[in-house]
Write a structure and sequence with these properties.
This is Porin. Strand 17 (about 310-325) and strand 18 (about 330-345) form a beta hairpin. The chain has about 400 residues and is mainly beta. The protein has a single domain (about 25-405), classed as Porin, CATH 2.40.160.10. The relative contact order is 0.13. The protein has a 16-stranded antiparallel β-barrel with strand order 3-5-6-7-8-9-10-11-12-15-16-17-18-19-20-21. A two-stranded antiparallel sheet has the order 13-14. Helix content is about 5%, strand content about 55%.
């Protein structure tokens, strides 16, 4: 609570100081939506507000929504949700040295987290150093997650309930890019803080990687004493799209104590592929990712703790109208659909050979309206089926979600 209080106090102080700044010195640097970029550029590819000629820029985004969902006819009624308020600040410290931080307030301030806070040092366009609190580049959504960029109020199930959404750790590594005509290639490679035993010892009573986010001590120590490695290679062609391949893995368990071996080294390994493209002429935007997880689960654990998981999502967004609407120039009306699937326990029962279920699939059609590229109004309808480990008749969830998200 003391830490949260200090964060809030610092935020209020910064807002008070900001209110005393001569607004004539403020200049917004908009995101360049026409420039070709990779998902790894998302951390800087945002609209910032520069203060005069100072090297400091600030920005952020917010998300809020109303929803009414029911599962097998049972509903909690109407719900208004303050999903998140995110503030990011950057500074050009000196030549080829810059700093960026991202602080997120979730659920009206119930949770406060530093998602990104790193120093980037350019040694060469192909060799850049990054150190601090980094965002592990597994898949595409983990880095490119800003709410105003998406037509859906909910984040993908595979990126939040299978992979740990916006998973960040203290670490360091290298990244770089190279351009050649219509081609662009980039890479990232980091050593960082790691997972811990909570991925198999948690309230979900299953293998659940997002549980590691609840361990704040991961910013201070590594449970196994061995770092997590995360690497990604992405290739983009301006006429075809972007393809990314990523890997994240390391030893998660505490296998020794004061030099005494108490367990074997148990690994968690994650592979992911992501792709996005825009179809010419019709301007249909397609993006998605798929991930595979392998966890070395002790044999003493029950079969509800899966050692293999897989899942992903695909979004299809189709602009149907771009015009001056209600005074907004170049406003866009979209229709969209998200398809999702996650299997938390890939395999069969030892006793019967039957398929271990515990899976979920969802279809979410949507309509979105963008008065500008930085603001989106969203109407979503979710239809979802979730099956338990024994394969009993699935629980059906359905309902509407109306929300807004905007950069500021």
């Amino acid at each position: 609570m003391k830490l949260k209080f200090l964060y809030i106090l610092a935020l209020l102080f910064s807002l008070n100081s900001y209110s005393q700044i001569d607004t004539s010195l403020l200049k917004r640097t908009p995101k360049d939506s026409t420039k070709q970029a990779l998902n790894m550029d998302a951390v800087y590819n945002r609209p910032f507000l520069n203060i005069g000629k100072t090297p400091i820029a600030v920005g952020g985004y917010m998300e809020a929504n109303w929803q009414r969902l029911s599962t097998d006819g049972v509903s909690e009624g109407h719900q208004f949700q303050a999903r998140r308020l995110t503030i990011f600040m950057s500074s050009a410290i000196s030549k080829r040295v810059k700093f960026l931080s991202e602080i997120e307030f979730e659920d009206g301030g119930k949770e406060i987290a530093i998602e990104f806070a790193s120093v980037d040092v350019e040694l060469h366009p192909l060799v850049n150093f990054r150190g601090g609190i980094i965002m592990n580049p597994i898949g595409a959504f983990n880095q490119n997650h800003d709410g105003p960029k998406w037509e859906f109020s909910d984040r993908p199930i595979s990126a939040t309930q299978m992979l740990p959404s916006t998973f960040s750790n203290v670490g360091a590594g290298l990244f770089g890019k190279k351009y050649s005509n219509n081609w662009m290639i980039g890479y990232e490679a980091y050593f960082s803080g790691n997972f811990d035993n909570s991925i198999i010892e948690n309230e979900e009573n299953k293998t659940f990687l997002p549980a590691a986010k609840n361990n704040a001590e991961r910013f201070e120590e590594i449970n196994s004493g061995l770092p997590l490695f995360t690497g990604k290679i992405a290739v983009r062609n301006s006429k075809i799209g972007e393809l990314g391949l990523s890997y994240m893995g390391g030893v998660y368990n505490k296998y020794q104590d004061d030099g005494v071996i108490i367990d074997t080294k148990r690994r968690v390994d994650v592979f992911a592929i992501d792709f996005n493209t825009t179809l010419p002429k019709v301007k249909t935007f397609i993006t998605g990712e798929w991930a595979w997880i392998k966890v070395d689960v002790p044999e003493t654990y029950g079969q509800q703790f899966g050692n293999k998981q897989c899942g992903g999502f695909m979004d299809v967004v189709q602009p149907i109208l771009k015009s001056t609407i209600l005074g907004w120039e170049n406003a866009v009306l979209n229709i969209a659909c998200r398809m999702e699937y996650v299997d938390w326990n890939v395999g069969t029962f030892k006793e019967t050979g039957g398929n271990i279920r515990e899976d979920i699939w969802s279809v979410m059609p949507a309509v979105s309206f963008r008065p500008s590229s930085q603001t989106v109004f969203r109407l979503n309808y979710r239809f979802q089926k979730q099956t338990d480990i024994l394969g009993n008749p699935p629980a059906s969830t359905a309902g509407f979600n109306i929300g807004i998200s905007t950069y500021f």
